[in-house]
Structure formats: structure tokens, C-alpha cells
Amino acid sequence: MRSTPKRYTRKQLLQHYAADSQPFTYIDGHAGRGIYDLGENLTEFQNYGLNLLERHHHRLSSGTPGAVASLLEANRRLNGPNETRWYLGSPSLATSWIREQDRMTALEASQEHQPALEAAFGRTLAADGAARRVDIRRENSYLYLSDLSVAGRGLILLDPPYEPYSQYLSWNLWAIDSLRSRCPDTCILMWYPCSGEADRQSLHLRVRDLGLQNAVFAELCETDFGKKKGALVSSGVLLVNPPTDMLDLEAKVQEILSCLQDAFHPVLSMETSYLKV
Ligand SMILES: C[S@@+](CC[C@H](N)C(=O)[O-])C[C@H]1O[C@@H](n2cnc3c(N)ncnc32)[C@H](O)[C@@H]1O
């Protein structure tokens, strides 16, 4: 739930898919509650990261990357000009990109989160029948993905569940490997923490072992992994099978990474990296 490259890269991809009339499928593998009340569960840095980004946006005026600016606007629409109490989670941010021809599935295993997730969709879906195109399922995403086939274009978000890192990483890599043949035109975006150089290198090796043909790592990591506060914002995304007709993918992702790096600069020294697998 932070100002990570995941949020803005995913936005960039959805924007790309929605730029022409062909339908696409969006699947949120770990949907969560949809909207979070930071007033109830505030960690200092969640608010701080967003505030730093907003301050940077005001400084840049019109120079903020589009994906970042539009998410900041969505946040302001929900919160009003002076507060940041409500935080838009991944499924709520995606709904504005789902058109009549598209389909979205939000998977959330926890029964406890279901009412909040449904209420969040009620708040963010336009009253134009969009609800019919969004399927909220109380389901284990790994089971759901194990026999999923997507014929056309699609995007699957694999966020972390709440299991320990080593467990969910194995599940996520297994899902990526098994989806390749059944969803050949689907992009998979997997979030991962960059909490230390050894974990980062090990993740890179494990991903390389999968022999993916078209994949990139995009990361924003604190230069000194030893400082605890950096672990809150150091993270990466693995993009598997990004759309081949998105010729400016690298430029757009680099732009997002640099914007976040600059925004965090007053408190954290971060480095960015964009690496083809
Ligand atoms: C970090 S939160 C997701 C945050 C959300 N993607 C966002 O950005 O707003 C992880 C969620 O995954 C759910 N979860 C854990 N394991 C799952 C599974 N196997 N299938 C579906 N949901 C799962 C948890 O209940 C939790 O709500």
C-alpha cells in the first residue's frame, strides 16, 4: 500500500490497453479491501510517501509523468484537497479503465475483506452498468489461475498475499510459469520487495531460470539496503510479456522510476534500474 513503481506501471499498462477499441481482461490476484482507511491504520510512511509525491508533483507543475499525475488526481478526488485519509487499493484504481468491452476479475480469498471490497467497487464504479463487467470472487487466486485461459490481451496483477516472502514468491513464480501457455497474450505484473541485495539477486536468478522470452525487472531501491526505512519503499516489478506494441514501455517506466526517485530524494537516496530478463 505504498507509492511504489507497481501502482504507476500498472496504470501505464492499463492506459495502453484502453487506448484502442480491442477488449482486454484485467485480473487482480490479491484484491484486498479496495479502499483503505488510513485514519484507522496509519503507518507514518504510507502517508509520507504520498505527501512527498504530491509535493514533487506541485514543484514539477506539468512535468509529472501522466500515470503518476492521474493517480494523484484520483487520490485527491476521493480525499478532497487537504486530507489523505482514504487510500485507493489496486482494484479501485483499475475500475476507471474498464470499458464496456473489457472484463475485470478481482480475487480475494478472505471472507472478512469481501464486504469492504464490494463497498469499494460501489464507490468507484461509474453508474453506467460497469458493475456487470466486474466480477468479485472470494477465491484462492492460485487455484483460479491454475486453469485460467485468456484468449486475447490481458493483464494479471500478482501482488503479495500475507504469507512469508519465500512462500508467496514460489507461488507467484509457479503461476507465471504455468500461465505462459494458457494466456500467451497476457502481461503479468508481479510486485516484489527489494529488502536486500542477496534476495534481489536470488530473485533475478530464479526468474532467469524460467527462460522467459519477453520480460523486464523495474526497480526502485534504496542505495543503502541496510537502512530500515528504505525497506518500506524499496520494491520492484517483474513484467512478463508486456505488450509488444508498446514501443515506449522502457521510456515510460524509466520516467515513472525517476519521478519516484526524485520525489523521495529529500529523505531517501534511491536508485532505479530497468533490466531485461
Ligand atoms: C497486500 S494485500 C493486497 C493489496 C491490493 N492488491 C492493493 O494494492 O490494494 C494482499 C491480499 O491478498 C489476499 N490473499 C492472500 N492470499 C490469497 C490468495 N491465495 N488468493 C486470493 N487472495 C489472497 C489477502 O487476504 C489480502 O487481502
UniProtKB/TrEMBL annotation:
GO BP, sorted A to Z: rRNA base methylation
A GO cellular component entry from the record: cytosol
Keywords: Methyltransferase, Transferase
Gene3D superfamilies: Vaccinia Virus protein VP39
UniProt organism field: Symbiodinium microadriaticum (Dinoflagellate)
Molecular function via GO: 23S rRNA (adenine(2030)-N(6))-methyltransferase activity
Protein's UniProt name: Ribosomal RNA large subunit methyltransferase J
Pfam families, sorted: RsmJ (PF04378)
